[in-house]
User: Fold this.
Amino acid sequence: MKIQTLFSTLIFLMFFISAAAQKNSTKKITAEPVIPKENAKTACDCKDAVKININKTTTYGLTQPPVGFGSIQEITAKNKSDKSAFEEEHNSAWYLLDINYSGELVFDIIPQDSSNDYDFLLYKYTDSTFCEALQKKLLNPIRSNLSRVSVQTKGLTGLSSLVTNEFSGQGINAAYSKSIEVLKGQKYVLVLDNVYPEGKGHTIKFNFVKQAAIAGIIVGTDNQPVKAEISLTDFSGTIVTQANSGIDGRYKFNASLNEDQDYSLTFSSDSSFIAVKTLNTKDLKQTNTFTDIRTILPKLKKGEKYKMGTINFYGNQSDLLPESYSSVNALYMLMKKNKKMVIRIEGHVNPAYPKDDWQSLSEGRAKAVLFYLKQKGIEKERMSSIGFGASKAIYPIPKNESEGAANRRVEINVISIK
Assistant:
């Protein structure tokens, strides 16, 4: 009886220890969790085109990589200068766009790998004979872009309200083509082609344009008005429009903005450090105006350290987020104006990641900014970089993604100006 009791006790202890170890293992701090999911499908033939319902704002992807041209190569160019067709289909993805909103349509094709070269053709859908008519070369696209992949635009292409060209041919040309006016109930066929084999997938963000007025005042730390330059840029770092404040520090201008999308307002003057504010069109009221934007431009001083929370990174990576490029470019413009300015770029990480990665990751983030500035032409003698790991985290124990993002940052230490 005692032997049975002892044996049962041992079994219970073994189970308890095993369960406790399993429970404790779940508390281990790891990198941000990656939730596996099946990527959105693509279709390589016209007849199998993936239907996308286009609403006010619509995102499709990240997709599976398109592989090959399917069972039928529907599109071939008449000649190399033809802007109405691919030279041939390489790795194509077909989409049938069902328009559920009227207005000026734009979209961004965002490659998972920015070195992939995605071209596109956009057709007005006719009827069930569309694919057959296309094979017989009886239809022409209403928009196209066959331009070579651009490092400056990070592989992005699509339709934009900022350009006037409806078609862009092969070679080094504009990465975007002109937006189109659409009506609810219409249908369009969009075909993408990645010219490179073994490429990665893509995301397509569809949007509609609205007109907005932007107004505010710029002051220094002494509360006195500052005459400054203002740049409005989209999520990819592309300048939408530029303006200047008056001697009273005030400014007002109009801009064409995409629905529910972030934009950056960058403020700069010769004697001040840059400031960046984020706008999102979902915050627009019925008047379609951003008003009373108050911006403080700090004086540019030797030995001063400036936070650049608008320069941010993917979790557990040293790759800049696309919306960070407007701020990095503003830093470049500041250094270009102040030709003797010397800076140290200081990288930081979010302490939610494995401790072994903290130092190298923070160094990598600082070097990513340095590399961008160097590529733009800033002399390497005017820059240095350093990583502080998580030793200077703004939120040592981040409670949410917003606080984690604030920790993933760089700061600019001005070593000298003259």
User: Anything to note?
Assistant: The chain has five helices and 22 strands. The radius of gyration is 26 Å.
